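Design request, tokens follow.
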């Protein structure tokens, strides 16, 4: 039955198929390792950890019920247990006490449960989409901004030869897949879309992001009236980087009453310094800074008029911003675009603390035949054109660098003309080769279905369902941690960074558990931390947590949190 197993009769009943799930029963116990993670339970439940599980997931009869499995996975993410394998080195009985069980499942049992939960393709995506709709509805901002960016997840295995992607953080082209994330201004995630074959940000926005947002973002009666009365009014704003620059996309979004906010990929000459005025703006993190801003109207190549805003730095550099949001003030738009770094910070934090890039499951699966990939023949021709063009530029540079001395002799003139003629002839030959290759490339299909690739060029994709399922749990854990950090931020010296560091310390701290069946309460007594100032901040956090009156799932016990061992 395993180390720490004490409920022998229930386990035998479960093995014979006579038990739906084990009864959640807490025992009075002291010094439970990592017991502080129980403080995150109200935030996990508020983030939707168990809200849609009966709708999307079911498990057969067994000792471990679905609620216990989901709570365990959520607690693991917050306690920085980065993989199921690392659970082998945790005390199973201690973790069982946190769930009201005798012990947690063994790794192989937990893997079997995950296999059952993730056997239907696409279910994790639907679960994520339903949670995303709820998270969007909880946004209190009058003006909604959605940030979309791609995250490249590198694959170092040899199961399949994935296409190469440029990884900016490593400055290399590596085999990888791309996930496109949709986040809020403060970095909190809503949804992500996995692309085994990356079509680019523009195509993903058109095909996946915008349709999902249209179906998920509700309209208030005030918005309906404003959209009907003003032809330039917008529904919400999508923010992305230069990769998404496309006048056609901007017009497509505007027709759907969706505003865009991005950098200008091809800014013209600098504006006069007299146009810029200094504005005091408050950044997304609460810091107040001075910005030199200016604004003009700008017409793009497809005759679409947009607002162009520029920020002037102390060094004289001008950053150009484009938007079809005609309602928001210039200062708000500038702050909103530069807040895009919160999404980059989210990726970095998730990689460091939640192992976002970790491979969850070994193995591959076939790519749907409808997926289009770059034609290898087109890529070869394109590479040859680039190579020939580079050679042509070098020859042209040599031709332009040729010069005679101030007083050349007849032999020098003759040699000069000969070299110049040879170079001109080489340039003409290369131009002819480039024109021929361009004609061939024009006749060659740029994209072809993946099933039409030659056998040696074909590839499969990494299994996606279990990865997406675990990532949704990590998203819930991150949102829970963020909501708790927001309660601590104002009382910490460095705001969000110190608040998250304190929470990580809390999740690793010991706690005492005291159930009281007479009053139907479960008291969680967190041990004191190393500094008095931290204890003072925790007291404020516990006040908010106790006000939620959270009931532990599967019981009638209301959680009561206190500081200090029993």
């Amino acid at each position: 039955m395993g180390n720490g197993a004490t409920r022998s009769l229930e386990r035998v009943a479960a093995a014979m198929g006579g038990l739906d799930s084990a009864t959640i029963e807490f025992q009075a116990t002291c010094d439970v390792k990592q017991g502080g993670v129980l403080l995150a339970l109200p935030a996990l439940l508020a983030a939707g950890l168990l809200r849609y599980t009966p709708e999307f997931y079911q498990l057969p009869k067994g000792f471990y019920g679905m609620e216990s499995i989901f709570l365990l996975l959520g607690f693991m993410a917050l306690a920085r247990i980065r993989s199921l394998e690392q659970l082998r080195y945790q005390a199973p009985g201690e973790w069982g006490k946190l769930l009201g069980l005798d012990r947690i499942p063994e790794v192989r049992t937990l893997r079997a449960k995950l296999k059952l939960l993730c056997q239907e393709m696409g279910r994790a995506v639907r679960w994520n989409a339903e949670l995303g709709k709820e998270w969007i509805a909880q946004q209190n901002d009058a003006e909604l901004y959605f940030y979309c960016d791609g995250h490249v997840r590198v694959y170092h295995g040899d199961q399949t030869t994935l296409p190469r992607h440029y990884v900016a953080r490593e400055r290399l082209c590596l085999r990888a897949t791309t996930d496109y994330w949709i986040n809020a201004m403060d970095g909190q995630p809503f949804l992500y879309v996995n692309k085994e074959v990356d079509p680019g940000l523009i195509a993903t926005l058109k095909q996946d992001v915008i349709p999902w947002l249209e179906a998920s973002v509700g309209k208030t009666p005030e918005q309906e009236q404003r959209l009907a009365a003003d032809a330039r009014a917008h529904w919400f704003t999508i923010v992305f980087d230069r990769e998404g620059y496309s006048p056609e996309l901007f017009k497509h979004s505007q027709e759907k009453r969706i505003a865009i906010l991005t950098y200008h990929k091809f800014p013209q000459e600098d504006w006069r310094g007299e146009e810029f005025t200094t504005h005091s703006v408050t950044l997304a993190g609460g810091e107040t800074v001075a910005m030199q801003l200016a604004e003009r109207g700008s017409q793009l190549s497809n005759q679409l008029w947009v607002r162009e805003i520029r920020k002037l730095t102390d060094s004289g550099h001008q950053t150009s911003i484009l938007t079809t949001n005609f309602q928001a003030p210039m200062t708000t738009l500038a702050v909103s675009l530069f807040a895009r770094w919160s999404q980059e910070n989210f990726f970095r934090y998730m990689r460091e603390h939640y192992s976002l890039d970790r491979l969850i499951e070994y193995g591959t699966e076939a790519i749907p035949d409808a997926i289009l990939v770059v034609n290898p023949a087109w890529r070869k021709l394109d590479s040859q054109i680039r190579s020939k063009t580079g050679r042509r530029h070098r020859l042209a540079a040599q031709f332009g660098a040729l010069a005679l001395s101030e007083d050349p002799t007849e032999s020098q003139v003759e040699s000069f003309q000969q070299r110049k003629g040879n170079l001109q002839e080489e340039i003409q030959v290369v131009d002819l080769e480039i024109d021929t290759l361009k004609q061939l490339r024009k006749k060659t299909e740029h994209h072809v279905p993946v099933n039409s690739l030659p056998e040696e060029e074909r590839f499969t994709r990494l299994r996606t369902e279990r990865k997406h399922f675990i990532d949704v749990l990590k998203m819930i854990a991150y949102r829970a941690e963020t909501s708790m950090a927001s309660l601590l931020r104002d009382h910490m010296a460095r705001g969000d960074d110190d608040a998250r560091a304190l929470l990580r310390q809390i999740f690793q701290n010991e706690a005492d558990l005291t159930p009281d069946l007479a009053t139907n309460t479960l008291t969680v007594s967190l041990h004191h931390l190393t500094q008095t100032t931290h204890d003072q901040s925790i007291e404020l956090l516990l006040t908010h947590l106790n006000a939620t009156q959270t009931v532990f799932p599967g019981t009638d016990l209301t959680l009561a949190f206190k500081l200090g061992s029993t």
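Comment from the thread starter after seeing the answer: thanks! The chain has a mean pLDDT of 89.
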